[in-house]
Amino acid sequence: MSKRITLKSAWLVAIIAALGLSIGQTANARLETKTAQRLPESRGEEAVNRLKQAGLYDSLAEAVRATHYRIKAQAGGYQAVNPAQDYVTNFTADGIQVYDSLGRELDGRMSLAGGSVRLEVDDEAAVYPVTVDPLLTQQAKLTAGDAASGDEFGNSVAISGNTAVVGALHNDDAGGDSGSAYVFAPPPPPGDPYADAVGPGTILVLHPNKAVGAPDGHVATVFSLLGIPSLVLDMGAGEEGTGNLKVHYKGLAVELLTTVDFLDADGHKISAGQLHLVDLSAGTHVAEAPYAGAPTPYRFVRLRGVLLLSFGVNAVEADSIVSP
User: Fold this and answer.
1) Nearest to 232 by CA among 195, 269, 198, 192
2) What is the b/e burial string over 96-134, where b = at least 16 CB atoms within 10 angstroms of the residue's CB?
3) Is 0.85 surpassed by the pTM of this model?
4) pLDDT grade, residue 171 (50/70/90)?
5) Cβ neighbours of residue 4 closer than 8 Å, sequence gap 6 or more
6) Whether 195 contacts 299, CB under 8 Å
7) Which one-letter DSSP state was computed for residue 30?
8) How far apart are CA 213 and CA 220, in angstroms?
9) Where are the alpha helices (DSSP H) in the chain?
């Protein structure tokens, strides 16, 4: 007896909405299968805050309402209606192609049963992964952290950008069949290891803002004067450094030994490390000042000089920063 892969309407319509196409409209929306991965899961107040920050919904209840589609058959195909999102789309099964990893075509069709559109694929002799074109193959597997039999996780689904809200109609967290909604989204991007701004106390520096951000070839010119503090850079709130400091520099006439002070958010010195600038050739070079105060994070770095000389700072870069 042949097995069948069945994709019910909630996932199917959400995918169609996310791709912005009608089934059979194009064969260029194919996505390749990747190894399944677990995306971060948010619940409760954390989930609500994430939805609000992303500008999606003001509550989990609103997000859940947005997941419900009414499906009906019509001449030549089907219509999906979502009143909460003022969304209507018509789609058909025309042009669906299903094939396995060997390129062999498989039998695929759509049907309407109990208010759900189902995509059925005969995979009895298929070699996985199976691709449905112009739909898509599996990119990641979403699972509930507290999954239990009968929860009906996936009963409703809403997708906006890279955020998915998945309902579990019969989850019992707040009592029998109270239900839950799970919010899945990628983790926030890693922080920036470069300085975000010029800090207070900067003196004897020409164009100090050119030392802010990633290396770009432009420099702030630091005039070293007998150890007087010169360039102060702010690594940024939430991006404080915890490791050694790389200094991207250029424009040396002779070798130069400087000192880097590592400061906390209040401007108090945590530790200091020597920075030896030795490369006199053209172009930008990198030297590193050791940080002895780890794991205490530093918010500011202050470059000092020891001779009546100048040099150019293109950027500063922390080897490591605080975790987001």
Assistant:
1) 198
2) bebebeeeeebebebeeeeebbbbbbebeebeeebbbbb
3) no
4) confident
5) 120, 121, 122, 123
6) no
7) -
8) 12
9) 9-19, 44-53, 60-65
Question: Would you state the pLDDT for residue 54?
Answer: 65
Q: What is the pLDDT of residues 22-35, one digit of tens each?
A: 333 333 333 233 33
Query: Which of these, 183, 186, 189, lies nearest to 41 by C-alpha position?
Result: 183
Burial of 318 (0-12, 13-18, 19+ CB in 10 A): buried
> For residues 19, 21, 27 and 30, what is the CA-based torsion angle, rounded to 10 degrees?
10
* Residue 249 pLDDT: 94
Pairwise pLDDT comparison (212 vs 76), residue with the higher score = 212
Q: Which domains does the chain have, with CATH numbers?
A: 4-184 (no CATH), 197-318 (2.60.120.260)
The more confidently predicted of residues 286 and 120 is 286
